[in-house]
Write a structure and sequence with these properties.
15 helices, 2 domains, six-stranded mixed sheet, about 500 residues, oxidoreductase, aldehyde dehydrogenase (NAD(+)), Aldehyde Dehydrogenase, Chain A, domain 1, single chain, 24 strands, Ald_DH_N, Aldehyde Dehydrogenase, Chain A, domain 2, alpha/beta, seven-stranded mixed sheet, EC 1.2.1.3
Length: about 500
């Protein structure tokens, strides 16, 4: 059995991983640390030839990996999880450079590893749907072949492993395509995976904006799992149509949280504030629209402002207590800045924040002040659009349950939603009427490897995680054995 020292890797130089070999490219590029604007170590810029080589290696590896018993595949996933932990601080430090305070980076690595181990416990058994004297009929789930995970910048470590783990466990070969803004941790994760998995089973390619289209167009790739914006997701789906690739799309969210008038403010407000501003609002299932009952609205808003004032800004060089990171990249910074401009244009009332630059001392990164908008109109941009940044509207809920359900469902998005109340029967009654793929009561963005995750409406299609997510990496096959009787 290998020791943890066998899985130590160097975190200095960065390569593509093709067929378990470290590959450089003629051209390189460097992402930027969003808390300092300093360049990160250079990474490869993949060519079309690199894509073809990785797909060929994955295609060659697939038959043997498909036929490997799932218990063996699960054991290697567990070994991989242990190997990540053997490099825990190196991964956390690198992830911090990609856009998080060290404490948040350490949390993401730890959570991702636990999620990966939870995934390794899942199984895809045959389902018997008919078993009698005449026939035995089963449903089987067989892996698709070569799959690609296109991973976003906001949680690159967790969301990347959240695609790779189920794909590989189900018996597919997997190519990891990281965001150009956060490529470094992905390349090191797959470099580590190359020490554990057979050649071609887990590979990684970094590159520019042309890399995604090369992958979605490739005829030998059987599935694309994409997490990102709705407009880009539509382009991915259209590109996959020509080769009838399977797609899983986890897209934008405009999550509603409904707060009833019976809650304990001291308990609920800190949790809701965290749900709104986790990772500076750069989480697809952060609370993006907050509906608070009129009876407690003023008290709730005042207390939420108090809580948000305690948030400490921080980037890769900050340590204790840092919670509030910068926006991850210049593109997203400009998008959020443009949305901030609507505050004045629409005459909205910020009760905290509202300014572009945060009070972050000498920091020169992409910081915003956390901003709360007091009871904006339902048709305002901040209610209708997903900011993916640290600005949240708090809307006064006036009327009964029908009205708040109508407001919560008044969006093209439907990723997650939550209801907060001491009356659990009432909370579930409201929750069941909400149009979202994940519903929570007295919590929000509570995720688990055995629970499927996906959205309604323009928040996506298909699911990650859970047995349903595993099935999304498979073909469904019926198998009938005739025991007696004729053909008809």
């Amino acid at each position: 059995m290998a020791s943890t020292t066998d899985y130590k890797i160097d975190f200095t130089n960065f390569y593509n991983i093709i067929n378990n070999e470290l590959k450089s490219t003629p051209t390189t590029r460097a992402a930027v640390n969003p808390s300092t604007l300093a360049p990160l170590p250079a990474v490869p810029v993949s060519t079309k030839a690199d894509v073809d080589a990785a797909v060929s290696a994955a295609k060659a590896a697939f038959p043997s990996w498909r036929d490997t018993p799932i218990e063996k595949r699960a054991a290697l996933l567990n070994t991989f999880a242990d190997a990540i932990m053997a490099n825990f601080m190196d991964f956390a430090s690198l992830l911090a450079l990609e856009g998080k305070p060290p404490t948040a980076a350490q949390f993401e690595v730890d959570f991702a590893v636990k999620h990966l181990k939870g995934t390794a416990q899942l199984r895809l058994d045959d389902e018997v749907i008919e078993d009698n004297e005449e026939k035995l009929t089963k449903i089987r789930y067989t892996p698709l072949g070569v799959g690609v995970g296109i991973v976003p910048f906001n949680y690159p470590f967790f969301l990347g492993l959240g695609k790779m783990g189920p794909a590989v466990l189900a018996g597919n070969a997997f190519i990891w395509k990281p965001s150009p803004y956060t490529p470094n941790t992905a390349l090191k994760l797959v470099e580590l995976a190359a020490k554990i998995f057979p050649p071609g089973v887990v590979q990684a390619l970094s590159g520019e904006e042309d890399l995604g289209p090369w992958l979605t167009a490739h005829p030998d790739i059987r599935k694309i799992s994409f997490t990102g914006s709705t407009p880009t997701g539509k382009k991915v789906m259209a590109a996959c149509a020509s080769t009838l690739k399977r797609v899983t799309l986890e897209l934008g969210g405009n999550d509603a949280a409904i707060v009833c008038d019976d809650v304990n403010l001291d308990e609920v407000v800190p949790k809701v504030a965290l749900g709104c501003f986790n990772n500076a609002g750069q989480v697809c299932v952060d609370i993006k629209r907050l509906f608070v009952h009129e009876k407690i609205y003023d008290q709730f808003l005042a207390k939420m402002v108090e809580v948000v004032k305690t948030f400490k800004f921080g980037g890769s060089e900050d340590t204790e207590g840092a919670f509030f990171p910068p926006v991850q990249n210049a593109m997203q910074f400009e998008k959020v800045k443009e949305l901030f401009s609507s505050i004045e244009k629409e005459g909205l009332k910020p009760v905290i924040g509202g300014e572009v630059e945060a009070e972050a001392g000498a920091k020169k990164g992409y910081y915003f002040k956390p901003t709360i908008i007091d009871n904006p109109p339902e048709n305002s941009r901040i209610v209708q659009e997903e900011p993916f940044g640290p600005i949240v509207p708090v809307v006064k809920w006036v009327g009964g349950e029908d009205e708040v359900v109508r407001m919560a469902n008044n969006t093209d998005m439907g990723l997650g939603a939550s209801v907060w109340s001491k009356d659990l029967e009432k909370a579930e009654r409201i929750a069941r009427r909400l149009e979202a793929g994940s519903l929570w009561i007295n919590t929000h963005q509570d995720l688990a490897p055995n629970v499927p995750f996906g959205g309604f409406k323009q928040s996506g299609m298909g699911h990650d995680w859970g047995v349903i997510g595993l099935k999304g990496w498979c073909n469904t096959q019926s198998l009938m054995t005739r025991r007696s009787g004729g053909m008809f």
